[in-house]
Write a structure and sequence with these properties.
The structure is a single chain. The protein is an alpha/beta fold. It is built from 10 helices and 9 strands. The protein has 2 domains: 179 residues, 3-Layer(aba) Sandwich (Rossmann fold); 62 residues, rRNA adenine dimethylase, C-terminal domain (Helicase, Ruva Protein, domain 3). Helix content is 36%, strand content 20%. Strands 4-3-2-5-6-9-7 form a 7-stranded mixed β-sheet, with helices on both faces. Strands 1-8 form a two-stranded antiparallel sheet. The longest helix has 13 residues. The protein starts with 9 loop residues before the first strand and ends with a helix.
């Protein structure tokens, strides 16, 4: 019995599960974290592919059943707990492979990125629309805070689409397997990372606004600053590249 409140939708198709393992690039040298192992089908495949598997399950009932399923799997550590509170920074180098509940997708990705010094990649099965937002580029309707936040730290690629019919129970939307390889250094260099992301959040807070209007509460003379940088103040944030956001942030930082 699945629990709707925990966003439980499970994959059982062996071909799809094998394709997730293949997309992840996991090897016998890897420590892998699986979030929400559910009935353990993916867990067992990861146990064969990786050196060590840490499976974090929030549901006590599923945790109890999994303990029985994983008897004899000495390289699997099953943990009953909340993945949003787990201390990933204590693991050393690790990868994440998981079919995660839709409702924790964004907070979980950013929680994992806090451990980017040790995180090597994330291969996640998530809602298709969210995956499209993650890989989106400037000038598209899906481009926004999530796109820039992930692409600053990682190189994302959608590996495949999984129809809703492949899950039990069947969700209302299709899913996508997305792999995010963590960059050794951020996509752009900025003098003040907090300022950089503050500008991004402000720019997308009301997508229909021009940048001169979006940034005016932060900087009274923003129109002149944009013109000085050769950026049309009438443009909207969704048209700005990451490099343009970085250039604006560095220019403002230099005036502090």
């Amino acid at each position: 019995m699945t629990r709707k409140s925990l966003g439980q939708n499970f994959l059982f198709d062996p071909a799809i599960l094998d394709s997730i393992i293949g997309a992840s690039g996991v090897t016998q040298d890897d420590t892998v974290v699986e979030i929400g192992p559910g009935p353990g089908r993916l867990t067992l495949l990861l146990a064969r592919a990786a050196r060590r598997v840490i499976a974090i399950e929030l549901d006590p009932k599923l945790y109890g059943k999994l303990q029985g399923e994983l008897i004899g799997r000495e390289n699997v550590e099953l943990i009953l707990g909340d993945a949003l509170k787990y201390p990933y920074g204590e693991l050393g180098p690790f990868k994440v492979v998981a079919n995660i509940p839709y409702y924790i997708t964004t907070p979980l990705i950013f929680k994992l990125l806090e451990s980017k010094a040790d995180l090597r990649s994330m291969t996640l099965t998530i809602q298709k629309e969210v995956a499209q937002r993650i890989v989106a580029g400037p000038g598209t309707k899906d481009y926004g805070v999530l796109s820039l936040g992930v692409q600053y730290h990682a190189i994302p690629e959608i590996k495949c689409i999984i129809p809703a019919s492949a899950f039990r129970p069947v969700p209302k939307v299709d899913s996508a397997v997305i792999r995010m390889d963590i960059r050794k250094s951020p996509a752009v260099e900025v003098a003040d990372e907090a300022l950089f992301f503050r500008l991004i959040r402000a720019g997308f807070s009301q997508r229909r606004k021009t940048m001169s209007n979006s940034f005016k509460p932060l900087y009274e003379n923003i129109k002149e600053i944009l013109l000085e940088l050769g950026i049309d103040p009438g443009r909207r944030a969704e048209t700005l590249s990451m490099e343009e956001f970085a250039r604006l942030a560095d220019h403002l930082h230099s005036k502090i």
